[in-house]
Amino acid sequence: MAVKVETITSVCGGSGTPSSRAILHPALHLHTQQVEVVVHLGELRTGVSCRYVCPMPDSDAIHFGEMVIALVDSGRKSATYKLATLLALIDVVTAKTRIDDPSPSIVSGREVGRRVIELYWPQTADYRGHPLRQSAQNDIPAKLARWRQIHGLEPEASLEDARRAKPDEWLQLEADLVGIVIGMPLAKLQRFGDGRHAAEERFIYQFGWRDEVKPKTVARADFDDSLILQPRVGKWLVQLAPLLRPLVQTKWAALVARQNQDVVDIHQLDEFLFGATRISLDRVRAPLVEAQHGRCFYCRLPMRAAEVDHFLPWSRYPDNTLDNLVAAHRTCNGAKSASIAALEHLEAWCERFHEGAVEQIATDTGWPRRRDRSIGATTATYVGLPNHTRLWLRGQEYERVESKRIQGCLQTLT
Ligand SMILES: [Zn+2]
Predict the structure, then answer these.
(1) How far apart are the CA of 330 and the centre of ligand 1, in A?
(2) What pLDDT is stored for residue 137 in this prediction?
(3) 366 near 317, Cβ under 8 Å?
(4) What CA–CA distance (Å, rounded) separates 176 from 167?
(5) Ramachandran angles phi, psi of 68, nearest 5°
(6) E strand or H helix at 127, and its extent?
(7) 389: CA distance to ligand 1 center in Å?
């Protein structure tokens, strides 16, 4: 029986039988009676059909968050791939946010793959003499660890250093790893459970390729790597990122600890896997100080010794590229800690894009710059702030959010 559906709040492409769907998270019981409902996504760009109405009718961000947590919890024995891919997806969606497009609807699978590589990279340095085991196949982290070894890269080497070691071969490796991410974790991310009992619910995104598609196919220019986000999912991922990130990282660290019981000190592991201190920022400290005319980015007073601070806190969005780095007093950096900077600092940060100083540092030092991504992540963070949020001004002083000022400032970057 085919039913015409007038309003679709969310649609999935689940191919499991209704009975297999009923064993999922309690939230998924909702539409198990609606067997054989055929929905044509005529209004969406995909043009594909799917068999069942999605199990998220009038859901909200919290409901969506519960489903994501259920998803993360459902694959107990699986590798860290799923977690890395979920974090990478959140990051890519966050970085695509613009003041005039607060809820991206399509993101690139290849972009997610490259972000997965970026997340794994610092974790592949030796930990007490050996790379950590992360999965049974150990493909992506193991290949990155091997690259480090072959090219004699220091533990604090950045991804840019890795690329510079052998640019052509790196491109091949990157294409191979991106292909793995697209064929495996991205294709399988939305499965609840493991192995043959797993059931798929495409409640986050749709995509047009088969599982286990080969890296060779992904590398072809005509391969469509689009992930079409379900309605409102882009917005929810950005809103929930500050809550989901620590949850996913805790789960990730626990999986790694379990697979490396012989070597792991659980207290140090979290910093090793996700900490901001793994990559040395020394090379850009002096140029940043010079570009700021020897003054602290936050209090504008002269500096004798400076530290490099992540303008957008690392715990919000890990970004070591140049636009997210500023030089500041140790005391100012310490007082700001993981807070979000006040509006006058945001204005100074936006102003810097018009001055060209950062571009000069990038040219002089070769330090990577991802202008659009940094703008996207900062936009996503500030635009999503609830009205009462306190922003760090100086010392122990905070101020409240003023959305008009935020809009005005970020508008200059579009
Ligand atoms: Zn200062």
Answers:
(1) 7
(2) 67
(3) no
(4) 14
(5) -65, -40
(6) none
(7) 22
The DSSP symbol for 339 reads: S
Give the distance (Å) from ligand 1 centre to CA of residue 395. 9
Q: How far is the CA of 327 from the centre of ligand 1 (A)?
A: 9
Distance 296 CA to ligand 1 centre (A): 5
User: Which long-range contacts (C-beta less than 8 Å, at least 24 apart) are formed by 226-229?
Assistant: 226/106, 226/107, 226/108, 226/109, 227/89, 227/106, 227/107, 227/108, 227/109, 227/112, 227/186, 228/44, 228/45, 228/46, 228/105, 228/106, 229/93, 229/104, 229/105, 229/106, 229/107, 229/204, 229/205
Nearest CA among 392, 378, 285, 275 for reference residue 332 = 392
Distance in Å, CA 325 to ligand 1 centroid: 14
Residues 6+ apart with CB under 8 A from 354: 412
Average pLDDT for 389-403: 90
Q: Which residue(s) pair with 192 in the sheet? A: 199
Greater model confidence, 108 or 58: 108
User: Is the pTM of the predicted complex or chain greater than 0.85?
Assistant: no
Q: How far is the CA of 304 from the centre of ligand 1 (A)?
A: 11
CA distances from 50 to 9, 185, 199, 270, 368 (A): 14, 21, 15, 41, 42
Task: Using the mean position of ligand 1's atoms as its centre, give its distance from the Cα of residue 77 in Å.
Answer: 47
Q: Domain segments of the chain: what residues? A: 18-276, 281-411
246-294 pLDDT per residue, tens = 889 988 888 888 788 777 776 678 778 887 766 788 899 999 999 999 9
